[in-house]
């Protein structure tokens, strides 16, 4: 059985791991969003653990008073846990699909916002850099061709 204190320790460990991984060189703009979702899920687990403990305490009091049998109390706890697990754990493919969809929406929204602010994207900058490199190479090519005597045009009046 998971106690609220254990959940708090696990949350602290995850926070420390994230702080450690945040010092890495990889940058992901969606990471803060995943952090919020992770914290919401952990909060849900914490609330569930508290609710489960309170439900068990309540059922134990009923057993002590003789209002319900120990076997029935344990069966009720097991059935409730099974129903909770079925309802609360979506299929992995659905979670991945939702994450991918959310990631795409965030990316599209950011791109639209940058376009409205007239800020070029990395792709725009890369395309312009490639064009500048091509033009610089062409200028250098023309300069070399202009240095040869046969390529110099004759100006009227010059001999």
Structure characteristics:
5 helices; 2 domains; mainly alpha; single chain; 159 residues; 78% helix; Poly(Hydroxyalkanoate) granule-associated protein; PhaF_PhaI
Explain the overall architecture.
The chain is mainly alpha-helical. It folds into 2 domains: 1-93, no CATH class; 120-149. The protein has helices at residues 4-22, 31-65, 70-88, 92-116, 122-147. It starts with a helix and ends in a 12-residue tail after the last helix. Residues 1-30 are annotated as: Disordered.
pLDDT averaged residue by residue: 73
For the termini, the CA-CA separation is: 101 Å
Would you list the SSEs in sequence order as H and E?
HHHHH
Number of strands: 0
Main sheet summary? none
Supply the number of helical segments.
5
Helical coverage, percent range: over 70%
Structural class: mainly alpha
Number of domains: 2
Shape: rod-shaped
Question: Compute the gyration radius: what is it?
Answer: 33 Å
The parts where pLDDT drops under 50 for at least 5 residues are none
Q: What is the strand content?
A: under 5%
Chain-wise SSE layout:
Blueprint lengths: L3 H19 L8 H35 L4 H19 L3 H25 L5 H26 L12
Helix pairs in contact: 1-2
Pfam family, one: Phasin
Organism: Candidatus Viridilinea mediisalina
Protein name: Poly(Hydroxyalkanoate) granule-associated protein
Short description:
The chain has 159 residues and is mainly α. It is 78% helix and 0% strand.
């Amino acid at each position: 059985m998971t106690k609220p204190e254990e959940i708090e320790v696990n949350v602290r460990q995850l926070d420390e791991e994230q702080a450690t991984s945040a010092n890495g060189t990889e940058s992901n703009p969606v990471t803060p969003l995943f952090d919020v979702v992770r914290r919401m899920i952990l909060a849900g687990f914490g609330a569930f653990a508290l609710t489960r403990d309170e439900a068990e305490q309540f059922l134990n009091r009923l057993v002590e008073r003789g209002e319900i049998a120990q076997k029935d109390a344990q069966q009720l706890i097991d059935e409730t846990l099974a129903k909770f697990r079925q309802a609360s754990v979506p299929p992995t493919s659905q979670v991945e699909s939702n994450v991918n969809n959310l990631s795409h929406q965030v990316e599209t929204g950011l791109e639209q916002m940058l376009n409205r602010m007239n800020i070029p994207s990395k792709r725009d900058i890369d395309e312009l850099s490639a064009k500048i490199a091509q033009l610089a190479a062409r200028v250098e090519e023309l300069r070399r061709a202009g240095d040869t005597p046969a390529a110099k045009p004759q100006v009227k009046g010059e001999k």
